[in-house]
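ESCALATION

Customer reports they have been waiting on this structure for their group meeting. Please prioritize. Original submission:
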Amino acid sequence: MVKTTITVGPQDAGRRMSLAKFDTAEAQAGYLYELNKGIVIVSDVPDRRHLAQVDEVRQQLSVYRAAQPGQINTIAAGSDCKILLPEEESERHPDIAVYKRPPDDEDNLWANWVPDIVVEVISAGSEHRDYVEKRQEYLLFGVREYWVVDADREEVLVLRRWAGRWTERVVRPPKVYTTKLLPGFAFHCAAVFEAARAVGG
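Update from on-call: job pushed to the front of the queue and completed.
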């Protein structure tokens, strides 16, 4: 019996699909796909302003990683990793995921390898997903910190896990953010927002 491969494209926005099928589907290029509680979500590839912010956040983390060997195992982008939530029928691709340790289980990598920090950069149309939907999903998955970077507001919402729930902190320039998860790291959100302004939009 020949197994049919499912292809997901922009026409599938709003389509109901199981996580098992979505996870093995071939994606039509040019779009981003996630599964939210069994519903296919299709987004355009974010613009250069979004890319500039993601690049600046990743650069700051990479500089720290080089200076502090052993603190960060992997810094992954959305195309490099995914978060699988079978109980929610959801699959997410964070803008940046920071893993302090290597995975324990290579066979079920994305269902079990929990990033310590997840970063989402707000882009047009992503506000509800990033501020509301992913907030609960990342908590359920075991993420220890979730940063929502919003250049329009010029602030970063930092959610930190405490006693099974999120505590909130808002960071605005010129403040820097430090975390016990990365000793000696200082996140300069002003540089991220400057990167956004530099490309316009």
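Sent to customer with the following note: The two ends are 51 Å apart (CA to CA).
Escalation resolved.
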